[in-house]
């Protein structure tokens, strides 16, 4: 691309991210980029720009040969996939912020780029303004990684901060997150852990050279968290964080999981509060490094989109070095064991999870809480049953790698 002329952008979607990008570009007048066309879905929706700025047919934008690159920022992942896939078939340069789209379709998106010569970048899809994909892809391209884990959802982290720092109840904290625009239209994706799962799938491809289907990742959230669980966490000065984690076992098998976890002051993630995200990348030689930044909001995410626009206009594309190196992708470590706390009203969940090293914590009316050890395979198998039962489950430490039974013994004495 000619770096001296103004590069024209076709933008799909004008919500939080689309407007964030538009706003940044209108303020930064020295940047050689202009949003030339904006495609939205609903002609009746009130928008901050006059109606003549919008088109409602995405094919028109795709067929516009005067555009240099496309930015996809709509919320519907399937429609986003249709747009991005068609653009890549035409060999175009595309930037997306849609984590669900990338998580569910990465193998197809890779194949399309290879076949038709288009380019797709998606830094904004993971951890808002933190440049974590590029860091893992470039800086750690040759160093083996042992683990990548962190807080990948700003909305649920904001809610947990309100609960632990300001003693608010879950419902009040959720409403506040929605009022401030941190929680998505449907809070389920955020609070149930599904959004974190999508981001973890993307990170895993770059960190470990394995594309995993979201269906392979057990995920649990804070949507059933109650005061009893919060009090339990506070006993020894811990807080609860929703941790998304992928690591390799000594046998080279993969453990991907999203699980609320007890985090104490010695933990890197303890200081990640409010709508911030924090990602710890642990290199085999460089050790753990914490990357912290805003994980939600129009400007941080818009800034990540802008960074991709600049890179893609200069010819950058992901090398997927680890994906190309990994001939045999690692299997899931289904027998890997985690230490968990479970609160439920249904004793059969203990059986479904195959919990061992069982220890009772509390019994109150209909509900009971226990500690135990569970395998990754059983977590995956029983996750729908746990959700249906409205049960709450969390890890006793965010250190899934060395999660030994020592932790639960300590905690039982404390209770």
Automatic annotation (TrEMBL):
Source domain of life: Bacteria
Homoserine dehydrogenase catalytic domain ranges (all copies): 131-310
One MF term in the entry's GO annotations: NADP binding
UniProt keyword annotations, A-Z: Amino-acid biosynthesis, Methionine biosynthesis, NADP, Oxidoreductase, Threonine biosynthesis
PROSITE patterns: HOMOSER_DHGENASE
Pfam families: Homoserine_dh (PF00742), NAD_binding_3 (PF03447)
GO biological process: methionine biosynthetic process; threonine biosynthetic process
InterPro entries: Asp/hSer_DH_NAD-bd, HDH_cat, HDH_CS, NAD(P)-bd_dom_sf
Domain Aspartate/homoserine dehydrogenase NAD-binding: 13-123
NCBIfam families listed in its UniProt record: PRK06349.1 (NF004976)
Name assigned to this protein: Homoserine dehydrogenase
Species classification: Bacteria, Pseudomonadati, Bacteroidota, Cytophagia, Cytophagales
């Amino acid at each position: 691309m000619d770096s001296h002329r103004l590069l024209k952008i076709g933008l799909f979607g004008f919500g939080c991210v689309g407007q964030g990008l538009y706003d940044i570009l209108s303020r930064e007048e020295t940047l050689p980029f202009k949003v030339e066309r904006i495609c939205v879905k609903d002609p009746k929706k009130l928008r901050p720009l006059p109606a003549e700025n919008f088109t409602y047919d995405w094919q028109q934008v795709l067929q516009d040969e005067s555009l240099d690159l496309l930015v996809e920022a709509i919320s519907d992942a399937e429609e986003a996939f249709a747009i991005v896939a068609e653009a890549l078939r035409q060999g175009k340069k595309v930037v997306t912020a849609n984590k669900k789209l990338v998580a569910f379709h990465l193998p197809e998106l890779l194949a399309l780029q290879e076949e038709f010569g288009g380019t797709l970048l998606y830094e904004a899809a993971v951890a808002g303004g933190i440049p974590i994909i590029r860091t893992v892809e470039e800086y750690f391209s040759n160093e083996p990684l042992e683990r990548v884990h962190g807080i990948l959802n700003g909305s649920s982290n904001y809610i947990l901060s309100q609960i632990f720092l300001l003693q608010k109840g879950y419902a009040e904290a959720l409403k506040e997150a929605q009022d401030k625009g941190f929680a998505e239209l449907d809070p389920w994706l955020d609070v149930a852990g599904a959004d974190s799962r999508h981001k973890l799938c993307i990170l895993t491809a770059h960190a470990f050279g394995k594309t995993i289907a979201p269906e392979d990742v057990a995920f649990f959230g804070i949507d059933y968290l109650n005061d009893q669980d919060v009090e339990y966490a506070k006993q020894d000065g811990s807080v609860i964080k929703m941790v998304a984690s992928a690591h390799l076992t000594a046998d080279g098998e993969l453990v991907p999981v999203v699980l609320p976890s007890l985090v104490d002051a010695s933990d890197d993630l303890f200081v990640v509060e409010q709508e911030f995200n924090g990602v710890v990348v642990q290199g085999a030689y460089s050790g753990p490094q914490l990357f912290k930044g805003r994980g939600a909001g129009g400007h941080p995410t818009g800034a990540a989109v802008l960074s991709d626009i600049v890179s893609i206009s200069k010819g950058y594309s992901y090398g997927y070095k680890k994906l190309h190196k990994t001939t045999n992708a690692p299997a899931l470590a289904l027998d890997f064991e985690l230490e968990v706390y479970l609160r439920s009203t249904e004793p059969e969940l203990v059986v479904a999870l195959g919990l061992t090293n069982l220890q009772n914590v509390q019994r109150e009316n209909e509900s009971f809480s226990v500690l135990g050890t569970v395998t990754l395979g059983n977590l995956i198998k029983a996750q729908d049953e746990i959700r249906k039962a409205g049960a709450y489950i969390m890890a006793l430490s965010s250190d899934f790698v060395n999660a030994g039974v020592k932790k639960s013994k300590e905690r039982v004495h404390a209770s």
